[in-house]
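ugh ok fine here u go
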Amino acid sequence: METVIKIDGKDVRFKSTGSAPLRYKMQFKRDFFADIMKMQGAVDGDLSRLDLEVFYNIAWVYAKTADPSIPPPLEWLDTFDTFPIVEILPQLQDILTSSLGTINQKN
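structure:
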């Protein structure tokens, strides 16, 4: 699944593939599926369940999957003057939901 979101006036591609969990593990040394499950409440609209570090990490992984040339996470985030999470989260919802749907189907 792929989407384009305008962030700080720039079109940013996000893509989810089978490599995203491995890329996440390699970059952040954390379990992608455990962290994405933390995001389920935020995806469902409960922003009090939003873990900003996890959100930034997942957003970076989806962007890196779409465009392998993007820099490491902090350098990538520094390319934006603003990164409005409240606006971006709903637009990433389909990708997050599709990842969560895969987990829920396994249970």
